[in-house]
Amino acid sequence: MRNVSLDVKRKTYDALQAIGDPKRVNEFYAELIGRTVSSHVAGGDIVVDAGAFHGRQTLALAAAVGPGGRVFAFEPLQPAFVVLSTQLRRHGFEDAVQAHQLAVSDHEGDMPFHHIHQAPGRSGRIWEGSPTERAGGFTATELRVPVARLDTVVGGSGPVRLMHLDLEGGELAALRGAVGLLARDRPLLLFRNSRGVAASMFGYDAGAFCGFFDAAGYELFNVLGFRFQQRDWTTGRQPGWYLGVPAEDEVAKGTLHGMIDDVAAQHGLAAIFA
């Protein structure tokens, strides 16, 4: 993986921006995420998908682990959970996936959850509408949903290989509820996070965010393979997807580095790392 200067990182982010084709860049990021899973997960593995929504990533994970593996999928919003369950039946993954209509966080019980009617995929524990959403008249209904810690629900399983989190800013809270799993199994973490926006909503700062991973013995990288540290917190134009890799896992770092370079070459983007 790449531990380079901020200047080199900024030049890479600017090079992607200069392409001027958001669809092409988004497809590049999407393949990086998909290849991260396929390069790290094998048949028989146990994985977690928190924030499963309609199950796009859940289905990909279920296919990757095969009939001998298991996916723990979490989706608290009832309409989305119905779609998720239907998708699992349609694709024959009912036995491979344990679907839970739960939110995941650092405590047990229940909590507020906002259903965004015009964009249900943006629903989450806390919602602060963006200017575009406010201008579009987006509306939200506040519900209460059951919540659990990943240590409680998944902790009794075999070793977890990967955790995929897309929780509209609630990723750090979910990981705080999985410290036992992180210490025991050392899974690869693949998660989305909006940095300052998420921190302001959930009451933490850059120091608390980076300090959590340091304390857990994890190194953070974004999906371009650049090391992410506190000094990167306010750097613009970087991708919103991150990899948490156990600090001792040099094999994973090398494998992921090669995979990222391969995907960049296939998309004609190798020059962004020059």
Structural features, described:
GO terms for molecular function: methyltransferase activity. The protein is built from eleven helices and ten strands. With 274 residues, it is of the alpha/beta class. The protein has a single domain, classed as Rossmann fold, CATH 3.40.50. Strands 3-2-1-7-8-10-9 form a seven-stranded mixed sheet, with helices on both faces. It has a three-stranded mixed sheet with strand order 4-6-5. α2 packs antiparallel against α11. The longest helix has 19 residues.
Attribute tags:
274 residues; alpha/beta; Rossmann fold; 7-stranded mixed sheet; 3-stranded mixed sheet; globular; SAM-dependent_MTase
Could you outline the blueprint of secondary structure elements for this entry?
Elements: H1 6-18, H2 22-40, E1 46-50, H3 56-65, E2 70-74, H4 78-90, E3 97-100, E4 103-104, E5 109-116, H5 131-135, E6 140-148, H6 150-154, E7 160-165, H7 171-176, H8 179-185, E8 188-192, H9 196-202, H10 206-216, E9 218-222, E10 241-246, H11 250-266
Parallel strand pairs: 1-2, 1-7, 2-3, 4-6, 7-8
Antiparallel strand pairs: 5-6, 8-10, 9-10
Helix pairs in contact: 2-11
